[in-house]
Amino acid sequence: MSRISEDALKAKTGKTWEQWFKILTKAGARMMDYREAVLVLRKQHGLTAWWSQMVMVAYEQRHGMRQIHQKGTGYTAERSKTLTAPLAVVWAAWQDQATRDRWLPGARFEVAKSTPQKRLHLRWFDDTKVAIAFYVRGSKTEVVVSHEKLTESADVPRLQTYWSQALVRLKHTVEV
Hints:
Elements: H1 6-13, H2 17-26, H3 34-45, H4 49-62, E1 70-71, E2 74-83, H5 87-95, H6 97-103, E3 109-115, E4 119-124, E5 129-137, E6 140-150, H7 155-174
Antiparallel strand pairs: 1-2, 2-6, 3-4, 4-5, 5-6
Helix pairs in contact: 2-4, 3-4, 6-7
């Protein structure tokens, strides 16, 4: 189910997971589409857009309407790594083909969109998408990779392993 703890949920929304699930069941959420149920949480219960979505995703997972890692556009494999290297060095390792080939060998993709030193959006060779976000964490850089639009849940662990290994290789490349 959700990675959000019961304590965090209650602190931010005033209710536990079970209380929210009862509210959604009583409102008929199993017969609503996702957007309708989120609107119930927002309009009738005052949750923010983000919390409404988190509660509804957890409800769908609990009731077998959505699997873990499943999003509206398929499944998503996510991995992140904090590197002891400045953002400019980490960004350059993604931009320079020779450097990238050392830590991401054989990767076939096209850059769909780029916001320098913030985000990369890639079209992967198999028509999936990869979103990479870069965050400055003091003197370090966090890289968050989301491989999206996967058609099978079985692809998630394979790609989590792939990206975990790639990010370790990136770490060895930029941390000199």
